[in-house]
Amino acid sequence: MTQYTYDSLEYSIHPSVYKPAEDTFLLARIIEQRETPGNTLEIGTGCGLLSLIASKNGSHVIATDTNPHATVNSQLNARSNALDSRIEVIRCSVAQTLSRNSIFDHIIFNPPYLPAEDPPEDWLSRAWAGGPTGIEFAEKVIGETAIMLKPEGDFTFLVSGENSLCRMTSYVESQGMSLRVLDSASFFYEKIFAVSVTRAKRG
After folding, report:
1. What is the Rg, in whole angstroms, of the alpha carbon atoms belonging to the chain?
2. What is the pTM for the complete model shown?
3. Which residue in 57, 123, 136, 180 has a CA-CA distance of 20 to 30 Å to 82?
4. pLDDT at residue number 95
5. pLDDT the model gives residue 135
């Protein structure tokens, strides 16, 4: 497996696991700049870079992925950075196999967000194919895990494009939550938004 370095963290990437790119690093900078005490859930951990950063900043992390290569990859990276005591890796679809008694301060994920009509055929395709509009995976994560988020907790994830940002904003508002854009980055053909979703304050 190819070796890479992010700040003081060293990590490898299996050929069938999504390689962190500009989108991942946008989220990484946000997580790196804030302390993340308490418990963090990462959905779709891939090689585990975001979980490494969160655990380094003080969080106990449960990292999940459906890709068996990713779970092994992230476990190896946690061990090689001496963070395996703070990171538990579980292979599951979103969070379906987690105990409903699991409560998290933070839920983070870099979702597959490119529109795709056809179901992905391999592990790498699953890392980018976000459904017909590109936000279906993110909606599924929020729908399945909101019950696991503390009242003051937050989701942190990526949305691609202005239209998807508007759709996602409408969706979270329909779930009694609010969305805030934390940062953004423009690439050749798209603009990526890093967002935070929290429960809407009443009153």
Report:
1. 16
2. 0.90
3. 123
4. 65
5. 87
Helices 136-145 + 162-174 axis angle, to 10? 20
Question: ∠ CA 160-163-166 to the nearest 5 degrees?
Answer: 100
- Whether 87 and 52 have beta carbons less than 8 Å apart is answered as yes
Superfamily of domain 2-199: Vaccinia Virus protein VP39 (3.40.50.150)
Q: How confident is the model over 77-100, as pLDDT tens digits?
A: 999 999 999 999 999 877 665 766
Considering only CA atoms, which of 13, 96, 10 is closest in space to residue 53? 10
Residue 122 — left, alpha, or beta (φ > 0 → left; ψ -120 to 50 → alpha)?
beta
> What CA dihedral angle connects 186, 33, 51 and 56, to 10 degrees?
150
Burial of 96 (0-12, 13-18, 19+ CB in 10 A): exposed
pLDDT digits (tens, 9 = 90+) for 6-20: 999 999 999 999 999
The Cα–Cα gap between 39 and 103 comes to 8
Please give the Cα distance from 155 to 124 (Å, whole number).
24
Helices (H) and strands (E) in the chain, counts: 6, 9
